[in-house]
Amino acid sequence: MTYTSSGFTNLENNFYFSSCEAREPSMTVQMGKVPISNIKSGAAPEKPFALDIRCRGMRPEKPVPLKIYFEGNSTGPGMLNLTGAGQTSVAQGVAIELKNDKGTKLPFNKPGAVSLDWQHSETDAEVYRFAGSVRYTPSGGEIKAGKADATMTYVLDYN
């Protein structure tokens, strides 16, 4: 007995690997010198910043659920402590307040991650943007002049 079969199998792959990266991997926001009276009164100027993130290897009709959160010396959402706080040359009673462009305080943990806004498609990538602002704010205690730098790292979460 002989058995002959004919047919075909259609294999469809709905999974795409995506890698995301910032166009500029490092950024410095120049805060400038701000009078103590402006910090005390909450009138320190906001300095805007933005990160453009390119994600490659994805289908344009199904964007990646891209989120961002931050890591740094923080006492809570939207507050970044100064580098070297407590040293004599570092400002006292001051922290850096961080918000996104919608006024939400920046998260310093993964559960608080915020979505990035899709901007446009490119030939080989989808482009997202995170926009925010920073400013000096009182952190408690007497405000004293000094160096007022801080560093934070952004983490992209695209599961």
Q: Would you state the CATH class?
A: Mainly Beta
For the sheet with most strands, the description reads: 7 strands, antiparallel
| Helix content, binned percent | under 10%
Number of domains: 1
Give the C-alpha Rg.
23 Å
Give the distance, in angstroms, between the N- and C-terminal Cα atoms: 53 Å
The gist of it:
This protein is mainly beta and 159 residues long. Helices cover 4% and strands 37% of the residues. The strands form 2 sheets. Strands 1, 2, 4, 5, 6, 8 and 9 form a 7-stranded antiparallel beta sheet that branches. It has a 3-stranded antiparallel beta sheet with strand order 7-3-10, with no helix packed on it.
Characterization of the model:
It is elongated and about 55 Å long. Helices cover 4% and strands 37% of the residues. The mean pLDDT is 86. It has a single domain (42-153), classed as Fimbrial-type adhesion domain (Immunoglobulin-like). The longest helix is centred in the first third of the chain and has 6 residues, at 36-41. It has one helix at residues 36-41, and strands spanning 19-22, 47-56, 67-72, 74-76, 79-80, 94-100, 114-115, 117-121, 125-138, 152-157. The protein contains 1 helix and 10 strands, in the order E-H-E-E-E-E-E-E-E-E-E. The strands form 2 sheets. Strands 1, 2, 4, 5, 6, 8 and 9 form a 7-stranded antiparallel beta sheet that branches. A 3-stranded antiparallel beta sheet has the order 7-3-10, with no helix packed on it. A hairpin with a 3-residue loop joins strand 8 and strand 9. With 159 residues, the protein is mainly beta.
